[in-house]
Design goal:
By secondary structure, this protein is mostly helical. It folds into 2 domains: 1-77; 91-305, Rhomboid-like (Rhomboid-like fold, Up-down Bundle). 54% of the residues lie in helices and 5% in strands. It is built from 10 helices and 8 strands. Strands 1-2 form a two-stranded antiparallel ribbon. The protein has a two-stranded antiparallel sheet with strand order 3-4. Strands 5-8 form a two-stranded antiparallel sheet. α5 (154-175) packs across α6 (177-198). The longest helix is centred in the C-terminal third of the chain and has 28 residues, at 278-305. It is elongated, with a radius of gyration of 23 Å. The termini are far apart. One of its GO terms (molecular function) is serine-type endopeptidase activity. It is a multi-pass membrane protein. Its main location: membrane. It is found in: Membrane. The chain crosses the membrane at residues 95-115, 149-168, 180-198, 204-223, 230-249, 255-273, 280-302.
Length: 306
């Protein structure tokens, strides 16, 4: 059941705005003498430090807190994107971490054969005298996703899992479990798809970096939506992009770029969707992204086999 909105009153970016002469700041809707740059993340009323109440993401005004408490008696509270608030906002993040670690342990035990069977590979012949082929173009579409859980080096999985633990819980709390998982998987698929489109047919790639860059893009969108300081996440993103394109590191930049674009697009739809059509906009955007990826893969396959 959808949550009820806050009580009737001023709403929107200019709700409660009554600027002092010469000042660009709004004033608290309950204390007109106090300027503030903070707004309620539900109704966007300006609120001063005495009025703002800590929420899982951002701050709420007293009216929204009371409305949420009243709504909780009939339905569960909702996240910023409309997901159900859970007692553990890190559960999906923990499961994704565990899956990556389990597959990594499997790679350490099985070695090269497991990497060859699960890594992202567009199209390749199995040998000089063997005409059989392997890769996505040969029907092994599962590689688009399995490669995103595959790592060979300790430093590779270490950096990716550290980023997942840094970004995942906040995004999971803001979006809800189902939306966060959808964001992660579609970002991973987008990274693999762009690699499939642009990388050489015989190029083998692996790692969760496409999904991680999708989380970077989503976090930037979320911080902008909440009007928080974006400089820390932008600095991290720029550093990672510089490393991505540094010559000699042999990094699959296509996966990073594809994940970043998909993550930003999906997150924008999730946090900016109007409440009355929220699910339609959110899952419609996810379906559209998935359809674009599918069409791109089919066209690339036809090109390689043509």
């Amino acid at each position: 059941m959808a949550d009820q909105g806050p009580p009737e009153g001023p709403r929107g970016p200019d709700a409660g705005r009554s600027e002092h002469p010469g000042s660009g700041l709004a004033v608290c809707y309950r204390h007109p003498e106090r300027e503030t740059g903070i707004r309620c993340t539900r109704c966007e009323r300006p609120i001063c430090p005495d009025c703002m109440v800590d929420a899982s993401v951002g701050y709420h005004c007293p009216e929204c807190v009371r409305a949420a408490a009243a709504a909780a008696r009939g339905s569960r509270p909702r996240t910023l994107a409309g997901g159900t608030v859970q007692a553990d906002p890190r559960l999906v993040t923990k499961i994704l971490l565990a899956l990556n670690l389990i597959v990594f342990i499997g790679v350490l035990g099985a070695g090269t054969p497991l990497v060859r069977d699960l890594a992202m590979l567009g199209y390749a012949r199995t040998g000089a005298w063997d005409t059989s082929t392997i890769g996505v173009a040969s029907g092994e579409w599962y590689r688009l996703l399995t490669s995103a859980f595959l790592h060979q080096q300790f430093w590779h999985i270490g950096f990716n899992m550290l980023a997942l633990w840094f970004l995942g819980p906040n995004l999971e709390a803001a979006l809800g479990r189902a939306r966060f998982l959808t964001l992660y998987l579609l970002s991973a698929l987008a990274g693999s798809t762009l690699s499939y489109l642009l990388a050489a047919p015989n190029q083998l790639s692996l790692g969760a970096s496409g999904a991680i860059f999708g989380l970077f893009g989503a976090m930037a969108v979320l911080l902008r939506r909440l009007r928080y300081d974006m400089r820390p996440i932008l600095v991290l993103l720029v550093i990672n992009l510089v490393i991505t394109f540094m010559p000699g590191l042999n990094i699959a930049w296509q996966a990073h770029l594809g994940g970043l674009i998909a993550g930003a697009v999906i997150a924008w739809a999730m946090v900016h969707a109007p409440r009355e059509r929220r699910a339609l906009v959110q899952y419609g955007t996810c379906a559209a992204v998935g359809l674009v990826l599918l069409v791109a893969c089919v066209l690339r396959t036809l090109h390689l086999l043509g």
